[in-house]
Amino acid sequence: MNNKKIHLVSLGCTKNLVDSEVMLGKLREYKITDNPEDADVIIVNTCGFIDAAKSESINTILSLHDARKKDSLLVMSGCLSERYKQELQSEMSEVDIFTGVGDYENIDTLVREKQSKFSDEVYLIDENSARVITGSSTHAYVKISEGCNQACSFCAIPSFKGKLHSRTLSSIVKEVTRLVGEGFYEFTFVSQDSSSYGRDMGLKDGLIDLIQVIEKVEGVEISRILYLYPSTTTHELIDALSSSSVFLPYFDMPIQHIDDVVLKTMKRGFGEQKTKELLEYMRSKEGSFVRTSIIAGHPNESDEAFEKVCEFIEDFGFDRVNIFEYSNEENTTAYEMEQIDEEIISERADILGEIADEQRIASLEKMVGKSLKVIIEGESDEHEYLLSARPILWAKDIDGDILINDTNEKELSIGKIYDAYITELLGDRLIAKIVLD
């Protein structure tokens, strides 16, 4: 019997998490431990998207190296490792095994042979990949494609993830069907550019096709899609999501900016008017939830352009807004452009962050006095007598939670869906009570 233990840290996005779960599946004979000091194998699946993510990845590696026991293996995988493979292998002697974004399915062999490897092709999960789903026994992320055909000026992802490579519809259906058989009923579909899904396979409306086939899988109760791209999101797709029997009217579309000059500099493909029209159409759908992301301080963002994006975010009424400071990345077209001073970028991000907080509070205030369905997540971090729950419209791990302070003496089970009534907003947390059947 193998009594060895593994400690895995998955950094960055949910797409990374899926690959991390594949590695756990390939190393299933190892017992998962939260304590790196006990682990025989430590894996850090890194993020290499922006400077902050790079620093987090490096610092995590160094911290785990300091904590690990003698003769353990420290593995560095993922985007940062792929992007800077030569430099990292020559400079980070703390790491025993290096691998990138192509060998998640081979991690058991690499660990057994204590071998570093970087395959030429980017790994894309299929229906035969035996993952160990983490964080939930009822919700799973499903990756539908890898790579990206967009040419955003600030993004280096295509340089190490390649062009769009979609899974077949049958592959996705088989994986979802298997996961339903294991007790999962909630699915979040992810990729770099989900609204372009299937275009590399000749599908005109691949995401609509996906919605239609997933609706037919018995046992799927809740589904949502993350990472829609403006120029590949159509009114027909919005209609399909808002009228679906299992997909929610959840619209996660990072617009990055609203000023025409900045959008053109960013090579976003859509200008201000079309972007606004698309967002308005999303918001017009009953029960919709609209999330976006904004980059502060991209080259060519004038004071006027910054004021315009601030005003737009304030006026539109997003449910959630992510704010990112522009990060000047090698292998991007913005890298050689005239850069904005870092202090100005930081100041602009802070201002946008305050607006984003106001938007979130305003969205939460609208929910007070309403009844809705929630999923019980477990004991709250606020108090042992409070339960953490998530409205089914909100994305897991992303949109936060609400607190249940009155169960109506009903025995509640983690992962189950219940009817709840929002009684108040306390600070930035909604308080709710369970409604009896």
Q: Would you give an account of this structure?
A:
With 437 residues, the protein is α/β, with parallel strands linked by helices. It is built from 13 helices and 18 strands. It has a five-stranded parallel beta sheet, with helices on both faces. Helix 12 runs parallel beside helix 13 (342-365). The mean pLDDT is 95.
Q: Outline of this structure?
A:
Helix content is 32%, strand content 21%. The chain is of the alpha/beta class. Strands 2-1-3-4-5 form a 5-stranded parallel sheet, with helices on both faces.
The residue fraction in helices comes out at 25-40%
Number of continuous helical runs = 13
Q: Give the rounded overall mean pLDDT.
A: 95
Low-confidence stretches: none
Number of strands: 18
N- to C-terminal distance: 48 Å
Largest sheet: 5 strands, parallel
| Biggest β-sheet: strands ordered side by side in the sheet | 2-1-3-4-5
Shape: globular
Helix/strand-derived category reads alpha/beta
Give structural attributes.
5-stranded parallel beta sheet; 437 residues
List the helices and strands and how they pair.
Blueprint: E1 5-10, H1 14-26, E2 31-32, E3 41-46, H2 51-67, E4 73-78, H3 79-83, H4 85-91, E5 97-98, H5 107-113, E6 139-143, E7 145-146, H6 157-161, E8 165-166, H7 169-181, E9 186-190, H8 206-215, E10 222-225, H9 235-242, E11 250-252, H10 260-266, H11 272-283, E12 289-296, H12 303-316, E13 320-325, H13 342-365, E14 371-379, E15 387-391, E16 402-406, E17 417-426, E18 429-434
Parallel strand pairs: 1-2, 1-3, 3-4, 4-5, 6-9, 9-10, 11-12, 12-13, 16-18
Antiparallel strand pairs: 7-8, 14-15, 14-17, 15-16, 17-18
